[in-house]
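Supplementary material to the annual report.
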Amino acid sequence: MNNVAVAAAHAQAKLGCERVLIIDWDAHHGNGTQDIFWADSDVLFFDTHCAAPFYPGSGLIEEVGVGLGEGYTINVPLPETAGDIAFEKVFRDILVPAAEHFKPDLVLVSAGFDPHRNDMAMNLTYDGFKVLTRIVQDIADTHCEGKLAFVLSGGWVQPFLAGQRCSRGA
Ligand SMILES: [Zn+2]
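Predicted assembly:
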């Protein structure tokens, strides 16, 4: 179950939201979320993830969506050693201007915590997560009166199960 994607679709169908920003900072690439909104210009999908080794094998910077959705998928692969400063720079220099352009009326975060230095070692600290959270809160405050939800999620699908639409995220 990709609960962030379900939440985004529900917000659009039932809650009057038109433009949903999904931020995925889980260390795995959110290939499931990306697939669902690949051709959708009403959902901006922004994903930072571990570049080496790539898992589940997608999330190249060239993957930007297709058709009307071209430019509404933003992949930022980062090295395992990225750390707080690199993450902050990516969020400030790429995510914030993208959000400025997109003007979301809802912000959802696939908030997997495996980039933490004690987990998959993308070298984020608790303070790093705090900084990213502040940036995300500022985006929500600026564009959509603070409408923001964090979901413990990875947004990805195991490749050998992808054809069965059976997903998990961690
Ligand atoms: Zn993960």
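Residues 163-170 have pLDDT under 50 and may be disordered.
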